[in-house]
């Protein structure tokens, strides 16, 4: 499924007559069992979102429900398209210092998962969405870690 087909399917699922269905918003999705595993495996880090090709599920952490809807949709598309292309499990995680990590892995018995393709796709996502990830890192540092925005700006200068 290409990007255009995915977006059409996404719009069918989350929109009805041009308006978002209130009961299907991404930030209100229920955690899957794999999402709980994501969080347990993170060890002090916080999972922002993830997609699982095996269960064909997407997870968005409700802790970040204040993030604008357009960014949530973009994260959904990035995650789901990644797993459709490379397979396996894809997660975007906040490190303890607010930096963003992109991780991918697969079940041991999955012979269709391609580590090389996954690695190349991670690099491509990082390059193409660098501004998005920097903004999300700032959001996390200010709203979750409660760092002073002035101090963050001083670090950059």
Task: Provide a descriptive summary of the structure in words.
By secondary structure, the protein is an alpha+beta fold. The protein has one domain (3-156). 49% of the residues lie in helices and 17% in strands. The protein contains six helices and six strands, in the order H-E-E-H-E-E-H-E-E-H-H-H. It has helices at residues 3-14, 33-42, 69-86, 115-128, 130-144, 149-156, and strands at 15-16, 19-20, 46-52, 57-60, 89-94, 100-105. Strands 4-3-5-6 form a four-stranded antiparallel β-sheet, sandwiched between helices. The protein has a two-stranded antiparallel sheet with strand order 1-2. A hairpin with a 2-residue loop joins strand 1 and strand 2 (19-20). The longest helix is centred in the middle third of the chain and has 18 residues, at 69-86. The chain starts with a helix and ends with a helix. Mean pLDDT is 79; it is low at 19-36.
